[in-house]
Amino acid sequence: MAIRLGLSLPQAQQYDIGRDVPDVARTAEQIGYESLWVYERALFPEPHTQGLYGIEGLEWPDMYRGVPDPLVTLALAVSATERARLGTSVLVAPLHNPFQLAKALATLDAASGGRVVAGFGTGWSLDEYAAAGLAPFEERGKVLDEVIDVCRAVWGPDPVRYEGRHTKIASAVVSPKPARPIPILVPTNSKKAMTRLVDRLDGWMPIAMGAEQLAAQWGQLRDLAAERGRTEPIQAVVRINAQYSAKAYDGADRAAFQGSAEQIAEDLAAHAAEGLDEFFFELQGLARDAEELKDVAAELFGAVRAAGL
Prior knowledge:
It is built from nine helices and 14 strands. It has helices at 17-31, 70-78, 98-112, 126-132, 140-155, 191-200, 211-227, 261-271, 290-306, and strands at residues 4-8, 35-38, 85-88, 91-92, 116-121, 160-163, 168-172, 184-186, 203-204, 235-236, 238-241, 243-244, 258-259, 278-282.
């Protein structure tokens, strides 16, 4: 079975969102990509009050300036596509009102005919939490749990009832409903996050940063699932932050997914393991415009298929 491939939609500053998102989405589906992805970056602090990922001294990349809303971006791709799944990788769930987020995702899924994948995360930016004004950063895990609960309630049968810390729905009809149960996927960086996934959620969204590391994390997650008695398979969609170049990178210090299309395809083969058969490329940051993004996406897709993947 061939590896399933996805592509990130253009959200960086060099793109015209209204024109380029539908164009890239349509072209990617025609090339053969099976999923399209967006991420969330609510703001760009200037000057920085906190390093990237909360790491002191680590600079925020310029592509984080002016990132458009992820759900609006996906909505632009809905009518331009017919088959590709539409996912968030990831949406910082605690920055959103749980009820409104659940309704927005349900509407998007209904409009797309059941193609939405909800990738949720807790985020790391103190500035984003302060700007959203919904919940303190220290409570991000609890708020994520409530978002998940509210989504499942709103997406379920009417009348909807829910009693939580932040959200209270006495009894109401809430529509439209999703076309099918929307899968919820999360990254994991702790035992607590892994347990939440195994006990409550549909799948895992790691970043490919090394074949051995990815395989080890996947093994830990599957071992935990067996330990806790989970019988349903865990979906996994792996994000690849590719550093594409037209020419092969011949340095001894080449990082994974750095270099030519053929080198990136070789790295993908090394990362594919049992149960890890869906990946998506993040390419938008280095492309000059939508035309270059589409060309690179087509070349990479061809290289992966030519490698027999």
